[in-house]
Design brief:
0% strand, mainly alpha, 3 helices
Amino acid sequence: MTNLLLTAIYYALYIMQMILFLRVILSWFRLNPNNVFIEVLYTLTEPILAPIRRLIDASIFGGRKGGMILDISPLIAFIFLQLMQSYLLRFIR
């Protein structure tokens, strides 16, 4: 039972990585923000990216006026999710 739960969490983290990747790719294009698909994509990913952005803004990497030239929050989220997956993988095996 525990192994099944850990496997489900592992795949949920993988799906979240793919959703983040899709958001990064789609951010390079000018899309209608009122599109239902885009709204769902942002609704799913913003709870992960917003706290990371706040931490970056508070750090020296956030810039003096709080604006980032390059948003690295998805990269940090990818690394965090990957670390969580590899940690879970130890328990699954």
